[in-house]
Design goal:
The complex is a heterotetramer of chains A (about 350), B (about 350), C (about 350) and D (about 325). Chain A has a seven-stranded mixed sheet, with helices on both faces. Chain A has a five-stranded mixed sheet with strand order 9-11-10-13-14, sandwiched between helices. Helices cover about 35% and strands about 20% of the residues of chain A. Chain A is globular. Chain A folds into two domains: about 180 residues, Rossmann fold; about 140 residues, Rossmann fold, CATH 3.40.50. In chain A, helix 3 runs parallel beside helix 4. In chain A, strand 2, helix 2 and strand 3 form a beta-alpha-beta unit. By secondary structure, chain A is α/β, with parallel strands linked by helices. Chain B is an alpha/beta fold and about 350 residues long. Helices cover about 35% and strands about 20% of the residues of chain B. The two termini of chain B are about 30 Å apart. Chain C has about 350 residues and is an alpha/beta fold. Chain C contains ten helices and five strands, in the order H-H-E-H-H-H-E-H-E-E-H-E-H-H-H. In chain C, strand 4, helix 7 and strand 5 form a beta-alpha-beta unit. In chain C, helix 2 runs parallel beside helix 7 and helix 4 crosses helix 10. The chains are: A alpha/beta (about 350), B alpha/beta (about 350), C alpha/beta (about 350), D alpha/beta (about 325). Chains A and B meet through helix 4, helix 6 and helix 10 of A and helix 5, helix 7, helix 11 and helix 13 of B.
């Protein structure tokens, strides 16, 4: 085990995979310098031209990454702020995500898009968004969002080894957090599509991911002080979702709160709620509560930014709300549910 | 009744198109006309151009490549200086539309096939949607961005998108998804007069549907759902073309003695949650039919809201009928399998009623 | 050389340049004690923006970028409201919702400011389009750095502007001389293959001139010609104003590496520190302009010091105003999503 | 006259493309093919001149008008037609269709339905070969409509900056969708843009397959020698509309008649002295297309069982 910061874990994952596999390359604006936060710092010293600076041409660099992936490389592209992925949406959505399907598997696109986001540090509406729901809406993509250094390393290694286009979402509010990471080339690997229970409990399930996990765990601590045991699930993988883990937990607790930093409306919480209400109909004792950002662009002022990002109190309040709903054991049983 | 969708197939010469005056039945009642959806669109565009000299059309594929595109020719003849054909440079011309809106015009910008919205996505979601907010309310962007969305027949993965769910997750842009000649005309008038960017999603397979439209000018407010068919046993919420599929399903269900209520939200932003909750309060059951992909689609948000706010009224889980979570395949049998259909709605309703 | 303008106008431009310089210096000092996030300053480019924007009239618009502070002051926006905005205060010009990246003042002809590289270019073309269609005698100016030329938005925008003969001026402030990462082209730009930036313009038939961005006469004349061309139906123009990157702009966060500006350097080089001798004696456009004004007798040393003192005092007061201003109510976060 | 090493092979392939495209047009008119079809009749000279200058390992990316490019590189006409007709046995199992054909084993990697969307893909392919050292060139064919897109500019810049082994082949057929080029840009020759970035550029008569081949060889030689990208602008003409069913009313009939006089096949036959061989070559091509048609129409439609396969490498539920 080593103690690493989240950002160091990202760099370690890149280092391991670059060393293991000569087809891995890293591309992006200023990546030889290390990028704005140092995720790729020093890699160019070891791997030379396999660390490649690009012009500020997001659309083309995304397409170039797709083209490199279907020509034998495993490129890892860094999008400096996820907001700028909007400039490259056509190449990501219309090409990277679809080429395997459109060609019925004649082509494959083993690439990773690293992008960081989140409303931290007063960067305003063009540098602060959480956009995972867009990508969880696009068939063909895989979307992961680690919350700990161990997952940051393990999921990035798995993403690079995956034969699919993976969107790897970092949160810059996590970069300096430290955690234990297993040593070795394969020890840290985290399978894609598998959630993890961060805290066991029986009264209410709180599902979250990325930076909001910290608030979710803090909320569980607060609830525990009142004797309420919350089970906290870190989804980690957003497409595909580990629905079995969620349904298992909700089967025990009967209550679900979904907390994310993205705008609530049209967010991934909606998809989770829609699936769980359908498939855990009989077990649900109370309405599913969603905690997310209001339907506004990320504001700049620190006060407004704090008001925009959901906090521990919001999660606690949502948990209390669903716990206050009288249990409905006598809910009618579901009809046959189509797969 | 044979579906008019088939006649919207691509590729026929406009001169082969049936004359709309022949297609349209005599007016149903005084002061109303029977118009196809495409004619309703054209009427709305003409009225908007006539009523406000600052309205401009940027682009020329409002009617896609369907025979109805001759209506664009008609508009161009009436307003020769008000239509601009930009190059294939969506970033450039959508941005041009934004700047023009900031500086005194009310442009209606056509991005044509909805899949192409991903080219100027940054202009739409980072610029148009944010400007009013980022400037603390100083600057307004009164523009309409038009697309033809959805599975239109052989469009495959790059010409069949329904991107409105992604934009529903994007604060600052209004969204209209009309389903009838009357709605598209009336909503368009409201959209053009709105001081915000409005995303206007049409479906080429709607163009031939004929409905009554008032002869007088009409503006339909945003955020007001319409109950397209009243019923008591189940609520079916549909958007855009899926309203038609929902109505077909309701017809089939009626033959079995099942009374379905069909609700058309008409706009996603703002969204009329109340009307749906009221309907579900009466029926206790909800099926949502929408053409976005299911994962994080329009149906997800509606289901999550209703599941939270009508928890006690619901007598069965909410079912979503959406486009399957695969890129849109090209071959016909596969295409039919992925898209939402009346039959799928019927099956879902029956599963809820047992 | 000096523009062919009355002495009092030139002195007014000197005042504006000093106000910009003192604003940016005050901001850098403020950032040492207050977390104001990432910001970009206009130091070293005052001699471009001030004479260029002085040629615009009421109703003309300009679209600027992340490096916008100098442009706004040049057109009369209140520095106090700008600092307040940068601190996210309720009295900020964007009510705390934009911050340094998005400073805008519609009343002063800055309808919106985008921090997406290249993003404002087509929007600026759109304003020119509207002026044409509405028959208004107005021009639109796109202000951008050389990096924007790497974006596809640039190519699409100039093509449309050229097709339409739109009344627009593309004013590219290339501040990359002596910047990091230069390539061996005639004029440095980190990631463009074109030998000269103006080569990118030539195929479109748009008049394009490279000028020394510290030569106020060159700026004035190129801009006057471009404005005249736009107002008389001659279509777009492209100006590349070249300046040296101020050493304090090289770190990720701006720093006063050269020390604060000392106007006496203009006439007393003995005080210039050796390590920044080139900057203060040859590369700083503001001091060059002051030297030329002194030589031409438009201003005395005493007057220069007095103007500078006023500028310092104004900016100190602006900072005080901003610091003392209240933060916005959190509910402000929900305002202005829609008009 | 420029001599070419394999005139009969080139002629037969041009006839194959012509016969194939005419057949696709007929099938579409008979409603046996769905979708939005863009045919390249009249542009065979570019596709074949290009293909004959490449090696099998080189990777070509086509646009929405790419049947010709796939056939020129050696795609099986039957499997290609099956794909266009949405059959399970088509190259892409019926999932791609006309705008997304692929035959990677022939060096025709894929097509795209997005104008200019293929240019960055080819760029990435060329970049990959600089890393892997596999010696493959990236090659991209696109129309003049792509020249006004941002991706075009971004790609020229990166290709030049990085000195990528890449051929840009612009088929300037004078029309972007329904508009003459002059309505979309003031730039008459898109090769001008390439020169801006220091990319060697040449404009050739695209209806002269031999001239195209010569230009391609120059570019290929340069790229293989480490000399970076080359831009070839081939002037040609679309004898059909933008898509099948497009009445083409935006064009003058006299213009169409002029270009019919410059038919690339007739031109090649005359230039290469193949008058005696041409009828048999045409007959062979048409027979191949007849057989392909029979096979395609007899093939099973795409199976709905395959609907959810190949979305990702990991099977989806």
């Amino acid at each position: 085990m080593s103690t690493l910061r989240y950002i160091d874990a990202i760099r370690t994952a890149l280092d391991i995979e670059l060393r293991r596999d000569p087809s891995v390359v890293a591309l992006g604006e200023d990546v030889t310098y290390g990028g704005p936060f140092g995720a790729t710092k020093g890699l160019a010293d070891t791997y030379g031209t396999r660390i490649k600076d690009t012009p500020i041409s997001e659309a083309t660099v995304m397409g170039l990454t797709v083209g490199a992936a279907l020509s034998g490389l495993r490129p890892v592209m860094e999008v400096m702020y996820i907001d700028f992925i909007t400039l490259a949406m056509d190449q990501l959505v219309n090409h990277g995500a679809k080429l395997r399907y459109m060609t019925d598997g004649l082509l494959q696109v083993p690439m990773v898009i690293r992008a960081q986001g989140g409303a931290r540090g007063s960067m305003g509406a063009h540098h602060s968004q959480s956009l995972e729901a867009w990508f969880a809406h696009v068939p063909g993509l895989t979307v992961v969002a680690p919350s700990t250094p161990a997952d940051a390393q393990g999921l990035l290694q798995s993403a690079i080894r995956s034969d699919d286009p993976v969107l790897y979402l970092e949160h810059r509010g996590l970069y300096w957090q430290k955690g234990e990471v297993p040593d070795g080339d394969d020890a840290a690997l985290v399978p894609i599509g598998r959630a993890i229970v961060r805290r066991a409990g029986s009264d209410v399930t709180i599902a979250s991911w990325s930076h909001m996990m910290g608030a979710a765990l803090a909320a569980a601590d607060q609830l525990a002080a009142d004797g309420i045991e919350a089970e906290v699930i870190d989804l980690r993988s957003l497409l595909p979702l580990d629905l079995d883990a969620l349904l298992g937990s909700v089967g025990r607790t009967g209550r679900l709160v979904i907390a994310h930093e993205a705008v609530t409306q049209g967010g991934l919480g909606a998809e989770i709620a829609a699936q769980v209400q359908e498939r855990a109909w009989a077990e649900l004792a109370a309405p599913i509560a969603r905690v997310g950002a209001p339907f506004v662009p990320p504001p700049f002022a620190p006060e407004l930014e704090r008001a925009f990002v959901p906090d521990v109190d919001a999660i606690v309040a949502a948990a209390r709300r669903v716990l206050d709903t009288p249990s409905r054991a006598a809910r009618p049983s579901p009809q046959s549910v189509e797969a | 009744m044979s579906s008019p969708e088939t006649s919207a197939a691509l590729g026929a010469d406009p001169s082969d198109a049936s004359d709309p005056s022949v297609m349209s039945d005599p007016p149903a009642r005084a002061g109303w006309s029977r118009l196809s959806y495409a004619e309703g669109m054209a009427l709305g565009l003409r009225e908007a151009l006539a009523s406000d000299p600052t309205v401009r059309l940027m682009g020329q594929y409002f009617f896609g490549l369907t025979p109805w595109r001759r209506l664009t020719v008609d508009i161009r003849e009436r307003f020769p200086d008000r239509v601009w054909d930009p190059p294939i440079a969506e970033i450039g011309y959508v941005g041009t539309g934004i700047g023009a809106a900031i500086s005194g015009l009310r442009p209606i910008v056509d991005v044509a096939t909805a899949s192409f919205i991903f080219q100027p996505f940054s202009q739409v979601v980072n610029e148009a949607a944010n400007i009013h907010y980022m400037t603390g309310g100083q600057t307004r962007v009164p523009m309409v961005i038009h697309v033809n969305h959805g599975i239109r027949g052989g469009g495959a993965a790059q010409h069949s998108h329904s991107p409105q769910a992604m934009l529903w997750n994007t604060p600052g842009i209004k969204i209209m998804t009309p389903s009838s000649a009357r709605d598209v005309r009336g909503l368009l008038r409201t959209a053009v007069e709105d001081d915000n960017p409005v995303f206007w999603a049409d479906h080429a397979k709607l163009f031939d549907y004929v409905d009554d439209v008032p002869d007088a000018e009409e503006r339909i407010p945003f955020g007001v759902a319409e109950i397209k068919r009243a019923g008591t046993d189940v609520t079916i919420v549909g958007t855009s073309l899926m309203v038609r599929r929902a109505l077909e399903a309701a017809e089939i269900l009626a033959a079995d003695g099942i009374s379905a209520e069909v609700v058309d939200p008409r706009t996603l932003v703002p969204f009329d949650t109340e009307t749906i909750l009221e309907s579900v309060g009466r029926t206790g059951r909800l099926v949502i039919v929408d053409e976005c992909h299911q994962s994080c689609g329009v149906g997800a948000e509606i289901a999550a809201r209703v599941a939270e706010h009508a928890f006690d009224a619901l007598r069965a889980p909410i079912r979503r009928i959406a486009t399957a979570d695969v890129p849109i395949p090209f071959g016909r049998p596969m295409e039919e399998l992925v898209e939402p259909s009346a039959a799928k709605v019927v099956t879902a309703v029956r599963s809820l009623l047992g | 050389m000096l523009p062919d303008l009355p002495g009092e106008e030139l002195v007014a431009q000197l005042r504006t340049m000093l106000r910009i310089r003192r604003f940016e210096e005050a901001l850098i000092r403020l950032a040492a004690d207050h977390d104001i996030g990432h910001f970009h300053v206009y130091v070293g480019q005052e001699a471009t923006g001030v004479p260029a924007l002085a040629l615009l009239g009421d109703g003309d618009v300009a679209y600027t970028t992340h490096r916008n502070h100098g442009h706004l002051i040049a057109r009369g926006v209140s520095p106090a409201g700008m600092v307040a905005e940068i601190l996210g205060k309720a009295t900020g010009i964007n009510r705390g919702k934009g911050g340094t990246l998005h400073l805008a003042s519609a009343a002063h002809g800055f309808p919106t400011t985008s921090s997406s590289v290249g993003g404002p270019l087509p929007i600026a073309v759109g304003s020119a389009f509207a002026f044409q269609e509405l028959g208004l005698d107005r021009v639109s100016v796109a202000l951008f750095g050389d990096g924007a030329l790497e974006e596809g938005a640039w190519h699409e925008s100039i093509n449309i502007a050229a097709m339409r003969k739109a009344p627009i001026i593309f004013l590219c402030e290339n501040n990359s001389l002596e910047a990091l990462g230069q390539k061996a082209n005639e004029y440095p730009s980190s990631t463009l293959a074109a030998v000269r930036l103006t080569d990118l313009v030539d195929p479109f038939g748009v008049p394009a001139v490279p000028i020394d961005g510290t030569d106020t006469r060159a700026v004035h004349e190129a801009m006057a010609e471009a404005v005249q061309r736009a107002r008389t139906g001659g279509g777009p123009s492209f100006i590349e104003a070249r300046t040296v990157r101020w050493p304090g702009n090289r770190p990720l966060w701006p720093q006063l590496l050269t020390g604060e500006t000392d106007v006496t350097f203009a006439w007393d080089p003995s005080g210039i520190p050796a390590e920044h001798e080139r900057w203060w004696s040859q590369q700083d456009g503001l001091l060059r302009f002051l030297r030329e004004l002194l030589d031409a007798g438009h201003v005395t040393r005493e007057q220069a010091i007095a103007i500078d003192t006023e500028a310092r005092d104004e900016m100190a007061a602006a900072v005080t105003f901003a610091l003392e201003s209240p933060y916005p109510e959190a509910e402000e976060a929900f305002e202005h999503v829609f008009a | 006259m420029t001599s070419v090493p394999d005139p009969l092979g080139m002629l037969e392939r041009m006839w194959l493309i012509r016969a194939f495209e005419e057949r696709v047009s007929e099938l579409y008119a008979r409603n046996q093919i769905a979708g939005l079809l863009h045919l390249g009749i009249g542009q065979e000279g570019v596709a074949v001149g290009l293909a004959w200058g490449l090696e099998p390992r080189d990777r070509l990316f086509g646009g929405h008008r790419a049947h010709a490019h796939a056939l020129a590189r050696g795609a099986d006409p039957a499997r290609l037609l099956m794909e266009i007709a949405g059959r399970a046995t088509g190259y892409c199992g019926g999932k791609g269709g006309t705008m997304h054909i692929a035959a990677p084993e022939t060096g025709f990697v894929t097509a795209t339905g997005v104008v200019a969307g293929n240019i960055p893909l080819a760029l990435g392919s060329a970049y990959a070969s600089t890393v892997s050292g596999d010696g493959a060139l990236g090659v991209v064919a696109f129309g003049d409509g792509a020249g006004q897109t941002g991706s075009f500019h971004e790609s020229l810049n990166i290709a030049a900056l990085w000195g990528l082994p890449l051929l840009f082949v612009c088929e300037n057929n004078g029309y972007a969708e329904f508009s003459p080029l002059s309505a979309h840009t003031k730039v008459e020759r898109l090769a001008r843009h390439a020169e801006t970035y220091g990319i060697p550029a040449v404009t050739v008569d695209g209806n002269d397959a031999a001239a195209v081949l010569a230009a391609v060889r120059d570019g290929v030689d340069r790229a293989r020698a480490g000399g970076g990208p080359t831009f070839i602008e081939a002037l040609t003409y679309r004898l059909r509309g933008h898509y099948e069913g497009d009445p083409g009313k935006y064009r003058e009939l006299s213009e169409l008649a002029d270009w019919k006089q410059k038919d690339p096949i007739a031109r090649f036959v005359a230039d290469q002295g193949l008058e005696a061989e041409s009828p048999a070559a045409e007959a062979r091509a048409r027979a191949i297309v007849d057989a392909a048609t029979d096979a395609a129409l007899a093939a099973p439609h795409a199976s709905v069982d395959q609907l959810r396969t190949q979305v990702t490498a990991e099977a989806v539920a």
